[in-house]
Every structure is written in C-alpha cells, then in structure tokens.
Write a structure and sequence with these properties.
With 699 residues, this protein is α+β, with helices and mostly antiparallel strands. It is 44% helix and 26% strand.
C-alpha cells in the first residue's frame, strides 16, 4: 500500500509532505508541498492523514504511480479524488518533481495540488452531451443565429437521408415539403421570438423525395449575456403514428367491407352538406337505398357471394354519383347517398334512374349471375327546412323507401313533408287523447229530446266533451275529426257507452227513467261491435238494454248496407234500438232503408236550420218526414234552434225534436232539474204558444 512505501521513506529520514496538503478543508485553487530529507518531522502522521482522505477507488492506482516515481522517475502527474469531512468529493491534480544527488539518491520531492473539480464536472457534462447527441433517437440540428447548420447527429441522417457533410453550412429549409404555406413558417418564427420555443407537427421531405410527418421542437440558446448563439431542433419521424391514426380513422369512419363511409362519417358529411346548401341556396337530396332480394342471395349462395355482390354494387353506385356526392353503407344491404348542389328536384331524377339501373343490372360473381334491384326513398332538403336535423332527414328517407317497396320495388318514392307533418300532428293528438282517457278528462253532456206536440221529454242524447286542462271545455268538432277511422276512436266510443250506462243506472236510482242515445262510428260498428256491446251491457245488468239507443250515421250505414244490417239485427237481439243519424246527407238510394232495422230517422240539422228560408231544404225535410211515414219509422229533427222551427216541423208532421231552441246540452247533474221544470211549465207553454199562433198544427 502507498502508506507502507511512504512510511519506508520516512523511516530512512527522508523529509515530509507539506502540511497544507492535509488541512481539514482543502483550499480551492493550488496548494504547494515539498519533501526534504533535512526535515523529517511527523512524516508518518502526514502519510496516514493523506491516506484517510484519498478516495478508496484511487488508492491502488496512486500507490502504483508513487512507486514508479520513487523508483524510476523524476516527475509525476496524477489525478485523484479526496474526501472532505463534510462528505464532498474533490478532484485533485498532483504534479510532482523528484530531485536526486549525483549518486542518484533521493534528496527532495516538490509538487503542487490543483483543485480540478469544476473542470472534471464540466468535462463529464460535455461527454454526456456528446453521448446524448450521438445516441439520441431523435434527429438533432444545431444552427447558428442565422439558421446555418453547424452540426447534425446520426439520427438526422437516418431520418432524412442527408449526410452530415451534405448539410453543413446549409439551412434546414432544404427539408421543406411544400405542403405548408409561407404563413405556417412565419408563425413558427414569431413564436420563437415571443416564447423562445416552438413545438408541433410538420411535413418534411427526405433526400429521396418522400414526404413524411415529423414531431418537431425548436429552441433558442443564449449565452450569459443573453445573446442568441444557436438554434437547436429535435425531431422524430412519426409516420408510424400517422399510419396507426389512419387505420383507426378507417375503422371509426369507414365500412370495412366496401370501404364506403359508415353512419358516423355520413352524419358529419350530411351536416356539412346542409351548411353548404343553406349558404349556396341549393337543394340537397338524401337517398335511402335498400336492395330488393339481397336476403335471398345470402340464403341461397352464402355470405361470401353476398359480400362480393355488395362490393360490386357499391362500386357501381359510387361511379354513378358525382364527385362531391357521398355514398355510405349504414348496415346490411342499406345505403344512404347524399346528393349536393342541385338547383331543383328534376336534376336529381336522372341520377335516381341511373342508380336504379346500375343496381338492377346483372352481377357475375364467379360462375354465378345475380340480379337484384333497389327501393329508394328520397328526402329533399332546402335552406328553408331549418327544423330537420340529420338523423330526422335519414329517417324520412327511410320511410319513403318503404313506400317505394309498397309501390312494387325497383323504384323511388319522394317523401312528402306536408303530409308527414299532418301525420305527426295526428300522432301527437292520438297520444294526447289516449292520455286524456287515462286521466278522465272526458265528460258527457246530455241534450234533451222532446215531443213538441205533447210537451213531454222522450230522452236525451249523450254528447262528448273534453275538459282540457289548458284549453278549457272542447266540443266534439275540436277533436273527434282527428281520430275518425283510427283505432283510438273505438276506445273513445266504448268509453261513451260505458259512461252512458253508468249514468242511466244513476238516474234510475233517482227515479228518472229515460232512454239515452249515443253515436256509433263506422269503424267501431264494423270491428267486433256485437261482442263488445254484449260485454259492456253485461257490466250493467241493472240497466235494461232498451234504454240505450245507438245512432248510426247514414253515410256509415250505406257503405256496406247488408253487413251493417246484420250487425244492427244482432244488436237489436240484445235489446237495444237504432236511429239513422244525419239522414239525407248520404245522397244514396232511399230504398236501402228497407234493409236497415232502424226504427228512428234523424233529419240532419243542416236541412232543419235553413228550412224557413230555403225552399229546397224545406222540401228535403218534408220528403224525409213522408219517407219515414211510408216505411213506418219514427222521425226526429235535430237543430231546432227556434220555436218557429218547431211550429214548422209540426206542420210537416214531425213531432219529436231536439236543438238549442229547446235546450243546450248540459252536464248530467243538471238534466233532472231541467226535466222537472219542463214538465211542470215549459211544455205547457209550448202547447199554449202553438194553440195561439198555429191552431192548424194541432189537427
């Protein structure tokens, strides 16, 4: 060990190390030392202290160097590390000179220690930077402040294809791809000036001409005085990332079989097309295309043949459309096309015809020749159609496609916006009316019927009202026409019968026995009416069926007289009776009356209302009264709004009447009181009026 050698020197009386080498805290800078054979005090102590401060990893090397110096050399230069008591490590450079006498005997050693810690650290940093520069996986470019290339690393060459010698002194603009406008590069340099850093994606060109994407980061380097000395750019080739993104884009937006846009991309392009349509004031056409007979191809030849058919037809359709049009596959054998830039609907007709032909032409797959056709629904969209979102437009086109299938397939059908809105309104009304039924918002009002000659109450007609929570009390004309001939009208009709039977039972409990008539719609009459009526009557066994009078519109009855006649006969067997309502409005042969078992005929109010001023209406009323007598039927006039109408009807032989001149329709709670008042005085007043003014009517 070095301590042994130095101890040997000390034992032979040969000098010492200067003590300033062994101070507790080494002086930064240079320290001198000397060993003189004339002064040999505390040498061993000095050697031990020196050894304690020496870094363990440097002791063996130091020992070897000292041995060589003492044995052979005259000079020694050695770097070693020492420990401070604080734990810090310093790098020391020792430069030693050996002096010998003429006999070669060692007489003196002089030297100096220099603190080279900062130099060592700087050197290590330089080595690290050089290693990073050489081995970095990013391309690196270093330029001067004017942008001239000073150095590049090996990865720069690997990415761009340019060697270091080819680019030194040139500017990085040799890599420009031409894909970015000048403003793009101006923005980069403006950002460098403002932030001293820029990072982003850029497209550059390799030496072989290939264009590639790279992630680029540029930074400014300043010296201690704040002056720009260099630009440093680091970049990576991100072609593989872009390829992966493109694959994800393909998967997210395109159909894997036909490579056409899928539903997601269709929505984006349709939204864009709508904006262009509004800006350019042009027409847009959305086509929903469904292949006719494709399922049979799949079932017969298998899915592989079916897929080949879809691919071929996709190419044909795409070639038929214009460059700016979009064709998307949204699933199975369903496609949607978006035709843009049309000035009117006629411009699209030729494209539709070509599409139908392109699809219907035979397709040969292997040895199999296939033939299918298409049903196409068309929804036109203009700048005025602001309420329709993309999904709604596609649904409309889908609805029109089904109409094309109903029309025989291999054709197209144009969606009717106006008709659709009416249907939507009707659908909303259906839902609201059904809700009203569930919430008991409907009520029945009752309009009395009287024998005008006798002054007696002969019954009442149940008339439906809607107690709407927002609009108040609604008359039948406000809502019944909306549901006519739709199934919900049957539900509402049965509610009227049930409520009427319930009210008859309540009145009978009070001692009031009068028949009540209800209106029966044509649809209700022809859909299991006899069975349903029997069920409803069975629910109220305390009510005799004779108290229920069913009024059937003449126009409904005459639509299929024999069928309606059978239904009426079956119902009469249950105990109810019938009236033929609004008689005279059907314009059909009156001989049909002999087939209908209605014992009461109601003269329509439209004739009664104007009979006093219109001779034709008077003749019609007179004819109906005469016809009823001929067929031995009773007759009642509705729409009797004045006592004058009553007098005139009596002259014609019609005694039974109802109308505003007698009483308005009223809630069920008010009818018993009205009947009591009528019977006690009002009826007599009628007779007195007739006696005074028209005694002939009594004859």
């Amino acid at each position: 060990m070095i301590s042994i050698n130095l101890a040997f020197i000390a034992a032979n009386g040969m000098g010492m190390w200067h003590r300033n080498l062994l101070t507790q805290e080494y002086i930064i800078g240079t320290s001198l030392f000397a060993f003189d054979h004339m002064r040999n005090e505390n040498f061993a102590e000095a050697v031990i202290a020196w050894e304690q401060h020496l870094h363990p990893d440097d002791r063996e090397r130091g020992d070897s160097e000292v041995k060589a110096m003492l044995h052979d050399g005259k000079q020694l230069e050695i770097d070693f590390r020492v420990h401070q008591p604080s734990g810090n490590i310093f790098h020391i450079k020792s430069m030693v000179t050996v002096f010998r006498n003429d006999a070669g005997k060692l007489i003196r050693i002089d030297g100096s220690n220099i603190d080279i810690t900062a130099l060592k650290l700087s050197d290590e940093k330089l080595k690290l930077a050089a290693s990073v520069f050489t081995h970095a996986r990013e391309g690196i470019i270093i330029t001067d402040p004017l942008g001239n290339i000073l150095d590049v690393n090996g990865m720069f060459t690997a990415i761009t294809g340019y060697s270091r010698q080819e680019v030194l002194g040139k500017k990085p603009s040799i890599l420009k791809s031409g894909m970015h406008p000048p403003a793009f590069y101006t923005e980069i340099w403006n950002m460098l000036v403002e932030k001293e850093h820029w990072s982003g994606e850029i497209w550059n060109r390799r030496k072989n001409g290939d264009i590639y994407p790279e992630a680029l980061s540029i930074s400014l380097v300043r010296d201690n005085a704040g002056i720009i000395t260099h630009h440093v750019a680091l970049f990576s080739d991100i072609s593989h990332i872009k390829d992966y993104q493109n694959k994800l884009e393909e998967m997210a937006h395109f159909d894997p079989l036909t490579h056409l846009p899928n539903r997601t991309l269709l929505r984006e392009r349709l939204s864009s097309a709508k904006r262009q349509c509004r800006c350019n004031k042009l027409l847009l056409a959305i086509l929903f295309i469904d292949l006719d007979g494709f399922k049979a191809v799949n079932d017969t030849y298998g899915h592989d043949i079916g897929d080949e058919l879809l691919i071929t037809l996709s190419h044909r359709m795409r070639e038929t459309l214009r460059e700016n049009d979009t064709l998307a596959r949204i699933g199975g054998d369903e496609f949607v096309a978006v035709l843009t830039g049309s000035e009117n609907k006629d411009n699209c007709k030729s494209i539709l015809e070509r599409l139908l032909k392109a699809i219907s032409d035979p397709v040969t797959v292997g040895k199999v020749t296939l033939k299918v056709s298409a049903s196409i629904g068309v929804r036109f969209y203009s700048q005025d159609d602001t309420d329709s979102d993309s999904d709604l437009l596609i649904r409309h086109a889908d609805q029109a496609m089904y109409e094309a299938k109903k029309a025989g397939k291999n054709c197209y059908f144009v969606f009717d916006v106006t008709k659709s809105r009416l249907m939507d309104t009707r659908r909303v009304n259906f839902d609201r009316i059904r809700m009203a039924l569930q919430k008991d918002e409907f009520v029945l009002y009752y309009q009395p019927k009287v024998n005008f000659r006798k002054g007696t109450v002969i019954g009442a007609e149940a008339l439906i009202r809607w107690q709407h929570p927002d609009r108040g009390l609604l008359l039948p004309s406000d809502f019944l026409p909306l549901i006519e001939n739709y199934p919900i009208s049957i539900e509402l009709g049965e509610w009227v019968i049930t409520t009427t039977l319930s009210q008859i039972a309540a009145w009978q409990a009070l001692g009031l026995d009068i028949p009540i008539s209800v209106n029966i719609g044509a649809l209700q009459l022809q859909h299991g009416f006899v069975e349903r009526l029997q069920t409803l009557l069975s629910a109220w066994p305390q009510v005799e069926p004779r108290f229920l009078l069913l009024e059937v519109l003449e126009t409904s009855a005459l639509a299929d007289v024999m069928q309606v006649s059978k239904i009426m006969h079956d119902c009469i067997k249950l105990g109810v009776s019938f009236a033929l309502d609004d008689f005279g409005t059907g314009y059909s042969s009156l001989t049909y009356l002999r087939h209908l078992p209605a014992n009461l005929i109601k003269i329509d109010r439209s004739f009664v209302r104007d009979m006093l001023t219109d001779p034709d209406d008077l003749i019609m009323v007179e004819s109906v009264v005469g016809l009823a007598k001929s067929f031995k039927r009773q007759v009642i006039a509705e729409g009797v709004d004045t006592r004058a109408h009553g007098v005139a009807l009596l002259e014609l032989g019609c005694e039974m009447m109802q109308g505003y001149g007698i009483a308005l329709a009223m809630p069920a709670s008010e009818l018993p009181k009205w009947i009591a008042n009528w019977s006690s005085g009002a009826g007599c007043a009628v007779n007195n009026l007739i006696d005074k003014n028209n005694k002939k009517a009594l004859m």
